Amino acid sequence: MVDVLIRHCDVLRTEGERAWVETDQDIAVEGARIQAVAAGGSLGAAAGEVIEARGMLAIPGLINTHAHVPMVLFRGLVEDVSVESWFNDYVWPLESNLTAEDVYWGALLGMAEMIESGVTCVADHYFFMDEVARAAVESGMRAHLAWAVFEHQGEAQLERTAAFIREWQGAADGRIVTWMGPHSPYTCGPDFLRLCARRAAELGVGVHLHVSETQAQVDLCLRQYGLTPPALLAETGILDGRALFAHCCYPTDADLELMAARRVGVGRAPKTYMKLSSGTADVRRLLAHGIPVGIATDGATSSNSLDILEQMRLLTLLEKYMGGDSTAFPVGQALGLAFEGGARVLGQEQDLGALQVGKLADIALVRQDAVHVWPRYDPAANLVYSSRASDVDTVLCNGKVLMRGRELRTIDKARVMREVAERLGRLNQRVPGSRIATYPV
Ligand SMILES: [Zn+2]
């Protein structure tokens, strides 16, 4: 008898730029993996848990390739300001208030939001990451965790992040993967980046950092070091192993060739770019070079939500609109980024990104009976352009049911919201001069 049997669902398939749906299928889950996908009713009706899913669309769990999950604590607190002011007047002063316990409750709040919107895996980049790891263990989500470190915090803090990697790599039955997390080339100089690269190589982990978010950052790097940010990262050894670039909105052609020759993936968060008026629409340039691209939310202080369906829709629309080409970025390509693209960015394409036998059972079941997705000529197009996060009914990660019928099983949502509410009075204070780092102007 299998552990979980999902019966009579429709299964979303993607390949290249093509997406289609196989109707009336059963999915059997044994342990952490998909054991069988077969015609509806053919796998019997006996299982540890049987989920009748007729009319629902089964999709691979959505992958968030760059976030600062606990920043949900500051959601809605920083609006209508410049990028420089966003960092220097708001975010970095606000973050200097954070305690380890704040981060834990913020992580659980963000994970509840992600599970409710069908996200099963997140690449998070933040502080007190042992607390985020604890939240991931409890919530049941898959998490690629990087402890953010700035050069001014010194080598001792870098060693603390290395100790986090030693302690947590592969924890929770492999659900937790760790990365080295220098913040960015504009807050970490070449010597510090070299040290990070060396530690990452010794520990056998990748490096996740912010790269070329704005043209001003690229210009600063060229002035300081005579190199673009990706070229500086190559020169310091950061690209000798796997690397995850958050944003990379302003790569040169030479950068793209360099990235394509190394193991570099890019996480794109278009809602943040549109809101901060900072990014570009050039995902097709990255894809043309064969560079893996995934969808991301960034932190909810810039994007206000951790909703990958929303980011996928915005990314697709932005590519069409800014590219002046309505035929660009077809439905299948958008879905390919959300699933297979995200898995490739994280180096987990063997295990994630498709509902196939042998892959990890990270699955979301999406309702298709609401008026906003009716009629249903093309379920894949509905998912890209019409579905809402609240249509997600049931979520599995690593074979465990984390939400069913929109009831979260691993997170006490009312308690998390109460705990967060009690902290707001202290967290929203900005003490003049108190700042976790300084954004170069
Ligand atoms: Zn970020």
UniProtKB/TrEMBL annotation:
It catalyses: S-adenosyl-L-homocysteine + H2O + H(+) = S-inosyl-L-homocysteine + NH4(+); S-methyl-5'-thioadenosine + H2O + H(+) = S-methyl-5'-thioinosine + NH4(+). Substrate binds at E95, H183, E213, D298. InterPro entries: Amidohydro-rel, Deaminase_MtaD/DadD, Metal-dep_hydrolase_composite, Metal_Hydrolase, MTA/SAH_deaminase. Residues 58-401 form the Amidohydrolase-related domain. Its EC number is 3.5.4.28, 3.5.4.31. Binds 1 zinc ion per subunit. Zn(2+) binds at H66, H68, H210, D298. Pfam families: Amidohydro_1 (PF01979). The keyword Metal-binding applies. Its cofactor is Zn(2+). One of its GO terms (molecular function) is S-adenosylhomocysteine deaminase activity. Keywords: Hydrolase, Metal-binding, Zinc. Catalyzes the deamination of 5-methylthioadenosine and S-adenosyl-L-homocysteine into 5-methylthioinosine and S-inosyl-L-homocysteine, respectively. Is also able to deaminate adenosine. Belongs to the metallo-dependent hydrolases superfamily. MTA/SAH deaminase family. This is 5-methylthioadenosine/S-adenosylhomocysteine deaminase. It comes from Levilinea saccharolytica. The gene is mtaD.
